[in-house]
Specification:
This protein is an all-alpha fold and 266 residues long. The mean pLDDT is 89. The protein is elongated and about 80 Å long. GO terms for molecular function: heme binding; heme transmembrane transporter activity.
């Protein structure tokens, strides 16, 4: 019952703004502390016997790569909320998440390229994993462009929700591309059936960074949702004001026309 009441409260934009105003400072503080700990552990981690100091790029690259897919998953749930449950904040959540997901995906591509140059001898290969992640980045940009291009918020929300669900098919392709095709990208070394193969000296800093980046996403997402709610309220107020001005002008114009007719008749 308590959980249901909380979810009901979160469906109310005003209550959502009040709740997030209280928790965001604490969430941001915890995120900053975990990021500092993770960065320190990453810097102190030993060099790999094969990759050398290049292995430390992994502590930034892997969390961003994970979150690039996770954010699309969040947007897919929000898309269902828009199309099926008509949740009032579903489209707000999806629209607020898209730029953050695009940023994580971009960082994953850049850090992956920086790692690939010394390890593969090139910044880029049309590898199945790399190509599918690039497609994910372009899908994020496409959704952001769609929200900007369509003036009607309801139409934009429905169209974006449908495209998000269609694009979700790319997530398992990214995840399992290293298993389905012969790729340059190494297979999973953390989330795998036989357990992690990564040495603990690298595993623990990586997990701390993953948690820190996940909290960073939650913090940024809640802040972006607040901004989107306020932006929509301002837009609605502007439209109401414009309607009032237009109505007042029409009434004033009609009154002047009637007065002129009466004077002419006199």
């Amino acid at each position: 019952m308590k959980l249901t009441a909380t979810l009901t409260d979160l469906a109310n934009p005003t209550k959502f703004l009040a709740l997030t105003a209280r928790i965001l400072p604490w969430l941001a503080g915890v995120t900053a502390i975990l990021l500092a700990i993770g960065l320190y552990q990453s810097a102190m981690a030993p060099d790999d016997y094969q990759q050398g100091a290049t292995v430390k790029i992994m502590f930034i690259h892997v969390p961003n790569a994970w979150l690039s897919m996770f954010v699309w998953g969040v947007m897919s749930v929000a898309a269902l909320g828009t199309l099926v449950w008509r949740h009032p904040l579903a489209d707000v959540a999806a629209k607020a998440a898209a730029p953050i997901g695009a940023a994580f995906t971009f960082l994953a591509l850049v850090t992956g390229s920086l790692w690939g140059r010394p390890m593969w001898g090139t910044y880029w290969e049309w590898d199945a994993r790399l190509t599918s992640v690039l497609i994910l980045f372009l899908m994020y940009l496409g959704l952001m462009a769609l929200w900007r291009a369509v003036d009607d918020p309801s139409r934009a929300a429905r169209a974006a929700a449908v495209l998000t669900l269609v694009g979700a098919i790319n997530i398992p392709i990214i995840k399992f591309s290293v298993d389905w095709w012969n790729t340059l990208h190494q297979p999973a070394s953390v989330f795998r059936a036989g357990g992690p193969t990564l040495d603990k000296a690298f595993l623990w800093p990586l997990l701390v960074m993953a948690i820190a980046f996940s909290l960073l996403f939650i913090t940024l997402h809640l802040a972006a949702m607040r901004n989107e709610i306020l932006r929509r309220r301002v837009r609605n107020l502007q439209m109401m004001q414009a309607s009032r001005v237009s109505f007042t002008s029409e009434v004033s114009g009609g009154s002047q026309g009637t007065a002129s007719n009466e004077i002419g008749a006199a």
